[in-house]
Amino acid sequence: MLGVPLRHTVRDAVARALRRAVASGDLPAPDDAAALDALVAGIEVEIPGNRDHGDYASNVAMKGSKVLKRAPAAIATAIAKQLRDEASERIHGGSGTLGPIASAEVAGPGFLNLRLRAGLLGDLLDAIVASPMSWGHLALAPGSAPYRVNIEFVSANPTGPLTVGNARGAFVGDLLARVLEAAGQSVTREYYFNDFGEQVRRLGESVIALRDGVDVPENGYKGDYVADLAAAIPPDVATRAAAAPKSSGEIDAEGYNGMVADDEVAIIGRWASERIRAGIESSLAVLGVEFDVWRSEGSLYTDGYVDRAITRLREGNWLEEREGALWFKSTAFGDDKDRVIRKSNGSFTYFGSDIGYIVEKFSRGHDRVIYVWGQDHHGTVARLRNAGKALGFDKESIEMLLVAWVRFVRDGVEMSMSKRAGTFITLDELLEEIGVDAARWYFASRSATTAIDFDIEAAKEKSSDNPVYYAQYAHARMRSILRKAAAESLTPAASIGALLDDHTSPEAKLARAIVRLPEVVEDSAMHHETQGVTTYATELATAFSAFYRDAKVVDTSAPERSAGRLRLVAAAAASLSASLRLLGISAPEEM
RNA sequence: GCGCUCGUAGCUCAGUGGAUGAGAGCGUCUCCCUCCGAAGGAGAAGGUCGCAGGUUCGAAUCCUGUCGGGCGCACCA
Q1: Which of A137, A189, A256, A387: disulfide with A301, CB 3.0–4.6 Å?
Q2: What is the secondary structure of A544-561 as a DSSP string?
Q3: In Å, what is the separation between the CA of A12 and the C1' of B55?
């Protein structure tokens, strides 16, 4: 019961009623039986914008007008009659429970306005209180296994600390993972990083330059962290580096073998890079973002996945040797040019690594792989998905979520972000200023694909007015009420009981807000979005505030009513806590 | 030039086919603590949903065009 969104229950009831109306002759059977099935399968119910119209509404009558050859109002009337019958009888052929719909009315051009039976809401709230940690998690369809999803995100090169520019991807990926897990999917969080090649060499050269007190090369890294690294080279690394040959400068020409190069630049670069990577890992942990898999680019070569990908493409005749280079014939998929996998100098392009990585990811049994990328990567989306198809994978199972730009401004002035120039704000610095909970809420509440402005000064100054505190405050207040009641020897009722019979009561309004959570989870998981969760948390907090204003909970002069309301508050706290957990935001007992 | 993407309240953003209400937060203005937590509540002002056509019972939402912003078009990493 807990894991099924209420609208499914309502939709099923409308479907039953429609079929019964046809079977009983109240509505004509379509000439084509499949047309009725299609109509039933396409039934939608939604919570109307104007809650006076009911708990749910369906437009099935308008959609079915053509197939059933009746005016929408007539169809809606026939369905409403069946729904009303079901509410007082036992569900025909069902488990013997009452139908979920208390009242069904026809309105407007043929809308079917539905109100839930109070007992159904009460039972659901009782179930929430009984197992609060299950609330917000969707049940798998009977007999089905969890869907296995790989989400790769952040994946910033370990050549410098994470910047605020990386923050959005980190939060978006983690939030998506949490939402999919709540929806019953099995998620692997993955970080892909470059551990060899040109970038790492530049890092090594920069560290060496600062160690030796000379100018950093033009393409080197200049941030303060580089100097810190130069001062922190451990003795064993220094010894090995001193014994190694100086940089040849041509390692890249040896292709991926460059990763095992043993010149001074490579040794220092690899050490510095790993140290930075470890720092990134702890920064992310502070954000509440933890990865299951850290995959290095080099391992795709040493473990043979790039070779395997090339072999498979060759077997499919998707490759071509030309001008000394190896090309993927992506023009066959509509791309405007073919793409190089291995350059004429023998080294591989990033695209080469990417195809090896796809093979590697699917070899682990994932049903779907999701890449969380910056918007600037959109040009590579089609080619990688096409390569996936050429490799024999379902194109639909490879998905790229393009996270839009964040324009960081301070006091209205845009800030440039460059690791090489050292003019960036680190993630750690941002969090010191505004806090993890506020940052998480900020990114969760905005569509990942929309560019946003982030004014750091404004975020800092307004932090106490941030909506995240509104939600947390409401939770703290709920818990406070429960504590106070216990202190006055009032305990929550064993059941919500008749508390919700009047659908206009403060209790009923709060109850309707509480039970919506599974629908929010389902929508978020389906659309790969999280802003619905923050909207929900705000709505629930608002609904609670209204209830709190209108209904005295802790009231020793009316212990029975008090007990019922306490149980409702317990359910509200469970739901608010669950939605904050979904966002990775703390739900404080007091503030 | 080609492609992708975004234009919604003073600001930051939700809403992406439904009903006599296009919402939230911040900001502005007016009120409310002898009363379960004022990090709260009640209310007000503020919008030609960039513009112009089209599709349909119905469009902020879909299509076309157009204007404006962002991004991408490497044998770079």
Answers
A1: A256
A2: HHHHHHHS--S-TTSHHH
A3: 32
Point out the residue nearest to B72 (C-alpha to C1'). Answer: A379
Q: Closest CA to B41 C1' — which residue?
A: A549
Global ipTM: 0.93
At A151, give phi and psi (nearest 5°).
-115, 115
* Distance, CA of A100 to CA of A102 (rounded, Å): 7
Provide the 10 A C-beta neighbour count for residue A282.
9
Buried b (16+ CB within 10 A) or exposed e, A333-354: beeeebbbbbbeeebbbebbbb
Distance between the alpha carbon (CA) of A313 and the C1' atom of B9, Å: 54
* The model's pTM: 0.92
Contact status, residue A517 vs residue A139, Cβ threshold 8 Å: no
| B chain positions with any atom within 7 Å of a protein CB | 3-7, 11-16, 18-21, 24-27, 36-37, 39-42, 57, 69-77
Per-residue pLDDT of chain A (591 residues; tens, 9 = 90+): 789 999 999 999 999 999 999 998 888 888 788 888 888 888 888 888 777 788 999 988 888 887 888 888 889 999 999 988 887 765 544 555 778 898 898 887 788 999 998 899 999 999 999 999 999 999 988 888 899 999 999 999 898 888 887 888 999 999 999 999 999 999 999 999 988 777 888 899 999 999 998 888 888 888 889 999 999 999 999 999 988 887 655 444 344 444 556 788 888 999 999 999 999 999 999 999 999 999 999 899 989 999 999 999 999 999 999 989 999 999 888 888 899 999 988 888 889 999 999 999 999 999 999 999 988 888 888 889 999 999 999 988 999 998 888 877 776 667 766 655 555 677 888 888 888 999 899 899 988 888 887 777 767 766 777 889 999 999 999 999 999 999 999 999 999 888 898 888 889 999 999 999 999 999 999 889 899 999 999 999 999 999 999 999 999 999 999 999 999 999 999 999 999 999 999 999 998
**Distance, angstroms, CA A132 to C1' B13?**
31
Whole-number distance in Å between A579 CA and B37 C1': 22
Instruction: Report the nearest residue to nucleotide B3, CA vs C1'.
Output: A379
**Domains by residue range for chain A, with CATH:** 6-116 (3.30.1360.70), 466-583 (1.10.730.10)
* Closest nucleotide to A374 by C1' from CA: B71
